[in-house]
Design goal:
alpha+beta, SMI1/KNR4-like, two-stranded antiparallel sheet, 38% helix
Length: 206
Protein backbone atom coordinates (compact mmCIF):
# COMPACT_ATOMS: atom_id res chain seq x y z
CA UNK A 1 0.00 0.00 0.00
CA UNK A 2 1.13 3.53 -0.75
CA UNK A 3 0.93 4.44 2.93
CA UNK A 4 3.69 1.89 3.63
CA UNK A 5 6.14 3.56 1.24
CA UNK A 6 8.84 5.72 2.89
CA UNK A 7 9.47 9.29 1.76
CA UNK A 8 11.54 9.93 -1.35
CA UNK A 9 14.50 11.30 0.62
CA UNK A 10 14.61 8.16 2.76
CA UNK A 11 14.42 5.96 -0.32
CA UNK A 12 17.25 7.82 -2.05
CA UNK A 13 19.34 7.47 1.10
CA UNK A 14 18.58 3.75 1.20
CA UNK A 15 19.64 3.37 -2.44
CA UNK A 16 22.73 5.52 -1.86
CA UNK A 17 23.67 3.31 1.07
CA UNK A 18 23.45 0.19 -1.06
CA UNK A 19 25.64 1.79 -3.72
CA UNK A 20 28.22 2.83 -1.12
CA UNK A 21 28.52 -0.76 0.11
CA UNK A 22 28.21 -2.71 -3.11
CA UNK A 23 28.97 -0.33 -6.02
CA UNK A 24 31.48 2.20 -4.66
CA UNK A 25 32.34 3.53 -8.10
CA UNK A 26 28.74 4.53 -8.69
CA UNK A 27 28.49 6.05 -5.22
CA UNK A 28 31.60 8.14 -5.81
CA UNK A 29 30.11 9.47 -9.05
CA UNK A 30 27.24 11.14 -7.16
CA UNK A 31 27.58 14.91 -6.91
CA UNK A 32 26.44 16.99 -3.91
CA UNK A 33 22.99 18.51 -3.93
CA UNK A 34 22.38 21.86 -5.57
CA UNK A 35 21.34 25.04 -3.71
CA UNK A 36 17.92 26.68 -3.98
CA UNK A 37 19.30 29.25 -6.39
CA UNK A 38 20.07 26.52 -8.91
CA UNK A 39 16.53 25.18 -8.58
CA UNK A 40 15.19 28.64 -9.38
CA UNK A 41 17.51 28.90 -12.38
CA UNK A 42 16.21 25.57 -13.61
CA UNK A 43 12.58 26.60 -13.19
CA UNK A 44 13.26 29.88 -14.97
CA UNK A 45 14.82 27.96 -17.84
CA UNK A 46 11.95 25.48 -18.06
CA UNK A 47 9.27 28.12 -17.75
CA UNK A 48 7.25 26.29 -15.09
CA UNK A 49 7.49 25.02 -11.52
CA UNK A 50 9.20 21.72 -10.79
CA UNK A 51 7.51 18.66 -9.39
CA UNK A 52 8.60 18.13 -5.79
CA UNK A 53 10.24 14.80 -6.70
CA UNK A 54 12.69 16.59 -9.00
CA UNK A 55 13.39 19.20 -6.33
CA UNK A 56 14.05 16.49 -3.74
CA UNK A 57 16.36 14.55 -6.05
CA UNK A 58 18.40 17.61 -7.02
CA UNK A 59 18.62 18.72 -3.39
CA UNK A 60 20.30 15.39 -2.63
CA UNK A 61 22.37 14.97 -5.80
CA UNK A 62 22.96 17.48 -8.56
CA UNK A 63 23.54 14.67 -11.03
CA UNK A 64 26.64 12.51 -11.32
CA UNK A 65 30.08 12.92 -12.78
CA UNK A 66 29.28 12.09 -16.38
CA UNK A 67 31.18 9.08 -17.66
CA UNK A 68 33.24 9.00 -20.81
CA UNK A 69 32.88 5.28 -21.53
CA UNK A 70 30.50 2.43 -20.77
CA UNK A 71 33.06 0.87 -18.42
CA UNK A 72 32.98 3.95 -16.18
CA UNK A 73 30.49 4.16 -13.28
CA UNK A 74 27.56 6.52 -12.92
CA UNK A 75 24.79 4.83 -14.94
CA UNK A 76 23.14 3.00 -12.06
CA UNK A 77 19.55 4.00 -12.94
CA UNK A 78 18.73 1.25 -15.45
CA UNK A 79 21.77 2.28 -17.46
CA UNK A 80 20.95 5.99 -17.21
CA UNK A 81 23.05 8.67 -15.49
CA UNK A 82 21.48 11.33 -13.26
CA UNK A 83 21.60 14.78 -14.86
CA UNK A 84 22.64 18.00 -13.14
CA UNK A 85 20.78 21.28 -13.62
CA UNK A 86 22.67 22.18 -16.80
CA UNK A 87 22.12 18.69 -18.20
CA UNK A 88 18.39 18.89 -17.49
CA UNK A 89 18.14 22.26 -19.24
CA UNK A 90 20.08 20.99 -22.25
CA UNK A 91 17.97 17.84 -22.57
CA UNK A 92 14.76 19.84 -22.16
CA UNK A 93 15.85 22.27 -24.89
CA UNK A 94 16.32 19.28 -27.19
CA UNK A 95 12.77 18.11 -26.47
CA UNK A 96 11.38 21.60 -27.08
CA UNK A 97 13.28 21.77 -30.39
CA UNK A 98 11.72 18.45 -31.42
CA UNK A 99 8.26 19.81 -30.61
CA UNK A 100 8.85 23.02 -32.57
CA UNK A 101 10.26 21.15 -35.57
CA UNK A 102 7.25 18.81 -35.57
CA UNK A 103 4.82 21.72 -35.51
CA UNK A 104 6.58 23.43 -38.39
CA UNK A 105 6.45 20.19 -40.37
CA UNK A 106 2.79 19.58 -39.55
CA UNK A 107 3.68 16.40 -37.65
CA UNK A 108 2.63 17.52 -34.17
CA UNK A 109 0.34 14.52 -33.65
CA UNK A 110 3.24 12.13 -34.27
CA UNK A 111 5.59 13.82 -31.81
CA UNK A 112 3.97 15.88 -29.04
CA UNK A 113 3.17 13.75 -26.01
CA UNK A 114 4.57 10.70 -27.78
CA UNK A 115 8.32 11.16 -28.25
CA UNK A 116 8.75 14.73 -26.98
CA UNK A 117 6.88 17.27 -24.91
CA UNK A 118 7.60 20.68 -23.41
CA UNK A 119 6.35 19.46 -20.02
CA UNK A 120 8.69 16.49 -19.77
CA UNK A 121 11.59 17.21 -17.42
CA UNK A 122 14.50 14.83 -18.09
CA UNK A 123 16.42 13.72 -15.01
CA UNK A 124 18.64 10.95 -16.42
CA UNK A 125 20.22 10.17 -19.79
CA UNK A 126 22.06 7.19 -21.28
CA UNK A 127 25.02 7.16 -23.66
CA UNK A 128 22.75 7.06 -26.72
CA UNK A 129 20.78 10.13 -25.60
CA UNK A 130 17.63 8.31 -24.45
CA UNK A 131 15.97 9.86 -21.41
CA UNK A 132 14.15 9.18 -18.18
CA UNK A 133 11.85 12.07 -17.33
CA UNK A 134 9.28 13.28 -14.83
CA UNK A 135 6.04 14.15 -16.61
CA UNK A 136 4.70 17.58 -15.69
CA UNK A 137 1.50 17.40 -17.75
CA UNK A 138 -1.59 17.83 -15.59
CA UNK A 139 -3.09 14.39 -16.20
CA UNK A 140 0.30 12.64 -15.97
CA UNK A 141 1.73 14.68 -13.08
CA UNK A 142 4.75 12.99 -11.53
CA UNK A 143 4.84 9.92 -13.77
CA UNK A 144 8.25 8.48 -14.67
CA UNK A 145 8.61 8.04 -18.42
CA UNK A 146 11.28 6.61 -20.70
CA UNK A 147 11.88 8.20 -24.10
CA UNK A 148 13.94 6.29 -26.64
CA UNK A 149 14.83 7.74 -30.02
CA UNK A 150 14.34 4.26 -31.48
CA UNK A 151 10.73 3.93 -30.34
CA UNK A 152 7.62 5.60 -31.80
CA UNK A 153 6.20 6.42 -28.38
CA UNK A 154 7.45 6.86 -24.83
CA UNK A 155 6.80 4.32 -22.08
CA UNK A 156 5.36 5.16 -18.66
CA UNK A 157 7.44 3.14 -16.21
CA UNK A 158 6.20 4.22 -12.77
CA UNK A 159 3.36 6.48 -11.62
CA UNK A 160 5.66 8.16 -9.07
CA UNK A 161 9.36 8.42 -8.29
CA UNK A 162 9.02 6.95 -4.81
CA UNK A 163 7.59 3.78 -6.36
CA UNK A 164 10.55 3.68 -8.74
CA UNK A 165 13.04 3.98 -5.88
CA UNK A 166 11.18 1.38 -3.83
CA UNK A 167 11.38 -1.11 -6.70
CA UNK A 168 15.05 -0.32 -7.35
CA UNK A 169 15.94 -0.78 -3.69
CA UNK A 170 14.05 -4.05 -3.41
CA UNK A 171 15.63 -5.34 -6.63
CA UNK A 172 19.26 -4.61 -5.75
CA UNK A 173 18.91 -5.71 -2.13
CA UNK A 174 17.36 -9.04 -3.08
CA UNK A 175 19.18 -9.53 -6.37
CA UNK A 176 15.76 -9.99 -7.94
CA UNK A 177 14.42 -8.98 -11.37
CA UNK A 178 12.86 -5.54 -11.65
CA UNK A 179 9.23 -6.06 -12.64
CA UNK A 180 8.08 -2.81 -14.35
CA UNK A 181 11.20 -2.78 -16.57
CA UNK A 182 12.35 -6.37 -17.18
CA UNK A 183 15.95 -6.01 -16.02
CA UNK A 184 18.13 -7.88 -13.55
CA UNK A 185 20.74 -6.08 -11.38
CA UNK A 186 24.36 -7.19 -11.66
CA UNK A 187 27.66 -5.86 -10.35
CA UNK A 188 30.53 -5.12 -12.71
CA UNK A 189 33.99 -5.59 -11.19
CA UNK A 190 32.50 -4.98 -7.75
CA UNK A 191 32.37 -1.25 -8.36
CA UNK A 192 29.35 -0.39 -10.50
CA UNK A 193 25.76 -1.48 -10.97
CA UNK A 194 24.51 -2.75 -14.31
CA UNK A 195 21.04 -3.79 -15.39
CA UNK A 196 20.94 -6.81 -17.69
CA UNK A 197 17.94 -7.34 -19.91
CA UNK A 198 15.98 -10.45 -19.00
CA UNK A 199 16.25 -13.31 -21.55
CA UNK A 200 12.52 -13.50 -22.27
CA UNK A 201 12.55 -9.75 -23.04
CA UNK A 202 15.52 -9.88 -25.42
CA UNK A 203 13.55 -8.08 -28.14
CA UNK A 204 13.55 -4.91 -26.05
CA UNK A 205 16.28 -2.32 -26.13
CA UNK A 206 19.10 -2.94 -23.65
Amino acid sequence: MATDIPGLTELWQRFDGWLAEHAPGDHESLRPGCPDGEIKRLEDGLGFSLHEDVRTTLALHNGVTMRGASTEPGAFLLGYSLLDVDGILEAHRDLVAMVEDAREAGEEDLVVGRIADRQWVPFARDVSGDLLFVDHRHHHWGEIGEMSFGDPEYRMLWPRMDLMLMDLCDSVEKGAPLTPVPRVPALYEGRMLEWHIRPHDSSRRA
